[in-house]
Structures are given as C-alpha cells and as structure tokens.
C-alpha cells in the first residue's frame, strides 16, 4: 500500500510551470550531511548534525535536498537546482523561520498555506527537472523548508544564516 501512495505522490509532481532559472554548481551527493560546520544550537531537529557551507542545494531523484543542512552568511542568495527527473518545491515552514524573516517558497507565495494550495490546485511552485529556484536570506537564524509533494518522504531541509 505504501508503494502505491508514493507512486501517486511522485506522479503528481512531474509537470508544471517553471520558476526562475539560473546556473549553479551542484553539491551532489545523496542528501547526506557533510562538510564543515558545528552542532546546531536551535530546536530544529538538527541537534548535533553537521552544517555544510554552500549556497547551492540539489533537489534529487531520491527525494532529498543535498546537502540537507546548509550554512550561509547573511545576504547570501541560495540556489536550489533540480538535478532529479521529477519536479520539486522549496516551501518554508511558516512557523519555523526567524520571527522577522520574510516568507519564501518557489512560486513566490507569501504564506505556507498559499504555497500548498497553489501546488495542489495548479502545480504552482513546481521546479521542473533542470530548473532552479533562488532566494536571498537577509535575516539571521535557522529556516526549515520542505517539498510539498515529497514531505511524506522526508524531503526536508534547513538553512542557517549567520
């Protein structure tokens, strides 16, 4: 039964409109945590995990953000590049971003509910294979985000802005 549910979720995200496109070298990998960084100090389920210093995140065919946890300096533009063969989204958890931070989601939505509704109704916010989404982080703190169609598969990531 789980295989049927996964197949439905994957099938529903393979098309849609593109978001901003830009180049960027992928970090590769399978979504495992690697690279420099120390332990987290926030309550983001990442306690004790490593943070990778990079501004590029791959959205993979294995339904992962790679790397899962990145650390950037304030004012850095992060690029999420879809290196897989199916569409993905980048959708902030509204309650898990710094209090003074602007909301972000592929598709340009201003709330988590709008992003979910847009994806579910018209596949809005979908980043197709080979395309990318960018966002500039202006507020320090830890941000948690996910892929709308693949959240149930654990496709969740973190950005720590220092």
In a nutshell, what does this entry contain?
The protein is an alpha/beta fold and 162 residues long. The chain has helices spanning 2-11, 112-122, and strands spanning 52-53, 56-59, 65-66, 69-72, 77-82, 91-92, 132-136, 141-146, 156-161.
Question: What do you see in this structure?
Answer:
The chain has helices at 2-11, 112-122, and strands spanning 52-53, 56-59, 65-66, 69-72, 77-82, 91-92, 132-136, 141-146, 156-161. The chain has 162 residues and is of the alpha/beta class. It has a five-stranded mixed β-sheet. A four-stranded mixed β-sheet has the order 3-2-5-7, with no helix packed on it. Strand 2 and strand 3 form a beta hairpin. The protein is globular and about 35 Å long. Residues 1-48 have low confidence and may be disordered.
Largest sheet: 5 strands, mixed
Rg over CA atoms: 15 Å
| Overall 3D shape | globular
Estimate what percentage of residues fall within beta strands: 15-25%
- Alpha plus pi helix count: 2
Secondary-structure element string: HEEEEEEHEEE
Spatially, the strands of the biggest sheet line up as: 1-4-9-8-6
Q: What topology emerges from the helices and strands here?
A:
Layout: H1 2-11, E1 52-53, E2 56-59, E3 65-66, E4 69-72, E5 77-82, E6 91-92, H2 112-122, E7 132-136, E8 141-146, E9 156-161
Parallel strand pairs: 1-4, 2-5, 4-9
Antiparallel strand pairs: 2-3, 5-7, 6-8, 8-9
């Amino acid at each position: 039964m789980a295989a049927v549910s996964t197949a439905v979720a994957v099938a529903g995200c393979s098309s849609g409109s593109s978001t901003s496109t830009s180049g960027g070298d992928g970090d590769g990998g399978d979504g495992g945590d690697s690279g420099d960084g120390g332990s987290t100090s926030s309550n983001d389920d990442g306690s004790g995990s490593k943070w990778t210093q990079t501004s590029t995140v791959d959205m993979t065919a294995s339904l992962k953000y790679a790397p899962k946890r990145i650390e950037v300096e304030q004012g850095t533009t992060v690029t999420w590049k879809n290196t897989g063969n199916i569409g993905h989204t980048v959708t902030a958890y509204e309650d898990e971003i710094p209090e003074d931070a602007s909301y972000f989601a592929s598709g340009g939505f201003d709330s988590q509910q709008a992003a979910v509704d847009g994806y579910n109704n018209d596949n809005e916010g979908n980043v197709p294979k080979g395309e990318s989404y960018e966002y500039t982080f202006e507020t320090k703190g830890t941000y948690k985000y996910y892929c709308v169609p693949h959240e149930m598969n654990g496709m969740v990531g973190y950005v720590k802005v220092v």
